[in-house]
């Protein structure tokens, strides 16, 4: 199997593979999968970028309400979208909110990290968390509403990372 040109970057005298993930979904199970893959890639010394767009941006929202100056439409989006990883629903078997509680219990029983713990691990491993600025504008999200440590960029920055990536995923 041949490695695409530019798929590795120099890292302390060695080549380091790159992995990029577009996290479009704001559903709990898909977010967990994305962060498990990202943390696994980082553990294998990949340089990892997760680019959050559309509903995936909800994963980066702070749990608490942040007062901002917004128009009526932007406020409506804010009210309708889940605020943070604890409020996400499942893509299947949501059961009016019982599904997420069930999966969290199963994960706890099997000593699996929760989504907030996976996010923290990603930050500790230096995984780049990038919020799509265009989508933030469309949905009326502001930087102060997102967790600390997030980078802000447009699609061109993502494409720059992805064009050098050995692994590129869309979730």
Walk me through the topology.
Layout: E1 8-11, E2 14-23, H1 28-43, E3 47-52, H2 72-80, H3 98-109, H4 115-124, E4 128-132, H5 133-139, E5 151-153, H6 155-163, E6 167-170
Parallel strand pairs: 2-3, 2-6, 3-4, 4-5
Antiparallel strand pairs: 1-2
Oligomer: single chain
Gap between N and C termini: 25 Å
Portion of residues in helices?
25-40%
- Helix/strand-derived category reads alpha/beta
Strand content: 15-25%
Order of helices and strands: EEHEHHHEHEHE
Work out the radius of gyration. 17 Å
Coarse morphology = globular
Unreliable runs: 1-6
Please, how many helices? Answer: 6
Strand tally is 6
Average pLDDT level: 86
Most strands sheet: 6 strands, mixed
Can you walk me through this structure?
By secondary structure, the protein is of the alpha/beta class. The protein is about 35% helix and about 20% strand. It has helices spanning about 30-45, 70-80, 100-110, 115-125, 135-140, 155-165; strands spanning about 10, 15-25, 45-50, 130, 150-155, 165-170. Strands 1, 2, 3, 4, 5 and 6 form a six-stranded mixed β-sheet that branches. Strand 1 (about 10) and strand 2 form a beta hairpin. Helix 1 runs parallel beside helix 4. The radius of gyration is 17 Å and the shape is globular. It starts with 7 loop residues before the first strand and ends with a strand. About 30% of the residues are buried. Mean pLDDT is about 85; it is low at about 1-5.
């Amino acid at each position: 199997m041949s490695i695409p040109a530019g798929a590795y970057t120099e890292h302390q005298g060695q080549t380091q593979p790159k992995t990029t993930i577009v996290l479009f979904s704001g559903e709990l199970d898909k977010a967990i999968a994305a962060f498990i893959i990202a943390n696994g890639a980082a553990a294998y010394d990949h340089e990892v970028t997760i680019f959050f767009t559309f509903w995936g941006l909800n994963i980066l929202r702070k749990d608490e309400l942040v007062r901002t100056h917004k128009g009526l439409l932007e406020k409506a989006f804010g009210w309708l979208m889940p605020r943070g990883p604890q409020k996400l629903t499942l893509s299947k078997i949501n059961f009016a909110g019982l599904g997420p509680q069930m999966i969290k219990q199963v994960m706890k029983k099997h000593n699996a990290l929760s989504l907030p713990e996976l996010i923290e691990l990603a930050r500790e491993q230096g995984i780049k968390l990038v919020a799509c600025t265009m989508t933030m504008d469309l949905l009326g999200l502001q930087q102060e509403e997102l967790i600390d440590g997030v980078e802000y960029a447009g699609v061109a920055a993502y494409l720059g990372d992805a064009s050098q990536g050995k692994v590129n995923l869309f979730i």
